[in-house]
Design goal:
- The structure is a single chain.
- This protein is an all-alpha fold.
- It contains nine helices and no strands.
- It has helices spanning about 5-30, 55-60, 75-95, 95-120, 125-135, 140-160, 165-180, 180-200, 210-230.
- Helix 1 runs parallel beside helix 4 (about 95-120), helix 3 runs antiparallel to helix 4 and helix 8 packs across helix 9.
- The longest helix is centred in the first third of the chain and has 26 residues, at about 5-30.
Length: about 230
């Protein structure tokens, strides 16, 4: 793949990630989505074009608003960077249809992560969209499908008995198992749990943490590892 093609795929993927985060956040906070200029969350100054460049905009501002000098979360460039790299590796190793579906899968999960971060819940329609995308990306066998359904029902019954697992987290585990395999789903949950526990320990466990952002990071890392070894 040429440098120009790689650059275009990276820019497209990272720009989509930036757009998804922006649109999702505006929708959740009841801000206008169409025909509205991007603004600083602190001083409300309208951002100019170079400040909106995926990854570069954050670096050029050294992680702070160019006007009020308030700190800009590093999660934005990290999400853009990871999505860009996932897009490039998927384009190299997958068919065009699989590339688009895998990119859509990671973007839907990103939107769910932003929603969970803002509202501490994930919408059912978003989970259904993630499920449909996963089924199209890697259609499961009948045996695979039956195993996931049976385990999902058993775990769901245990969840209602002991309340040891969130409903959205269980839904994601089933979707990840259907899309990839049991080992990948388990590894993703394990990695996300370690990151969440470490962050919760750092914050002294004072506030409830959304789990889907960690699931997004873990899923992105797993996909990067898988695609780089194909």
């Amino acid at each position: 793949m040429t440098f120009i093609t790689t650059s275009l795929i990276f820019v497209m993927s990272s720009t989509l990630a930036s757009t998804v985060m922006c649109v999702t956040n505006r929708h959740l906070t009841h801000q206008p989505i169409l025909l509205a200029r991007s603004q600083c969350d602190y001083c409300a100054i309208t951002l100019i074009w170079w400040q909106l460049l995926p990854c570069l905009g954050w670096l050029l501002q050294i992680g702070r608003c160019h006007n009020c000098r308030q700190k800009i979360s590093s999660l934005y460039p990290l999400a853009e960077l990871m999505t860009g790299v996932v897009g490039v590796l998927s384009y190299e190793t997958r068919t065009p249809q699989q590339f688009l579906l895998q990119l859509l899968f990671i973007l839907i999960l990103l939107a769910l992560s932003v929603t969970d971060a803002v509202q501490l819940q994930v919408p059912v329609l978003g989970l259904l969209g993630l499920l449909l995308t996963g089924l199209l990306l890697n259609p499961p066998t009948v045996y695979h499908l039956l195993m996931v359904i049976i385990c999902y029902l058993l775990l769901n019954k245990c969840r209602f008995t002991d309340q040891w697992l969130g409903k959205g987290d269980l839904d994601f585990f089933a979707i990840s198992w259907l899309t990839f395999d049991f080992q990948t789903a388990t590894l993703t949950i394990f990695m996300a749990s370690i990151m969440a526990l470490a962050n919760n320990f750092r914050r002294d466990g004072q506030t409830r943490l959304p789990f889907f952002p960690y699931l997004w990071v873990a899923t992105g890392l797993v996909i990067l590892w898988q695609t780089s070894h194909q």
